[in-house]
Amino acid sequence: MIKHVVCFKLKEKNDAVIKKTKDLLLSMKENVPTVREIEVGSDFLASARSFDIYLGVVLDSRDVLDEYQNDPYHVNVVKKHMHSVSEQSISVDFDI
């Protein structure tokens, strides 16, 4: 199994954008069949090095990561939203 982690810096940090973004990311659990587990959180510290939103997704394998990356809901709904609200993102993928 692997964990796919992404952290996002938002262009606009307000409660409405954060809630909508968290809800949309969590909706992948029901809409992206390759997602085994999902965690979403928002930063409360707001330090200079903080990112605003955390996404952690557990997938079965590295091959499944490719399926996840190309899933229509992930691409057409989630990524589209994330690109519109984020100014920067970082990611890491690792075996668990």
Summary of the model, kept short:
With 96 residues, this protein is α+β, with helices and mostly antiparallel strands. The chain has helices at residues 15-26, 28-31, 62-70, 72-85; strands at residues 2-10, 37-42, 53-59, 86-95.
Description:
By secondary structure, the chain is an alpha+beta fold. It has a single domain, classed as Alpha-Beta Plaits (2-Layer Sandwich), CATH 3.30.70. 41% of the residues lie in helices and 33% in strands. It is built from four helices and four strands. It has a four-stranded antiparallel β-sheet. Helix 1 runs antiparallel to helix 4. The model has no long low-confidence stretch (mean pLDDT 97).
Write the layout of secondary structure elements.
Elements: E1 2-10, H1 15-26, H2 28-31, E2 37-42, E3 53-59, H3 62-70, H4 72-85, E4 86-95
Antiparallel strand pairs: 1-3, 1-4, 2-3
**Total tally of structural domains:** 1
Give the spatial strand order of the biggest sheet.
2-3-1-4
- The radius of gyration computed from the alpha-carbon positions, rounded to a whole number of angstroms, is 13 Å
Q: Number of DSSP strands?
A: 4
Biggest β-sheet description: 4 strands, antiparallel
Mean pLDDT metric: 97
Gross morphology is globular
CATH architecture descriptor: 2-Layer Sandwich
**Structural class by helix and strand composition:** alpha+beta
Instruction: Kindly state the percentage of residues in helix.
Output: 40-55%
Approximately how much beta-strand content do the residues carry? 25-35%
CATH class: Alpha Beta
Terminal residue distance: 6 Å
The SSE order reads: EHHEEHHE
Number of helices: 4
List unreliable stretches of 5+ residues: none
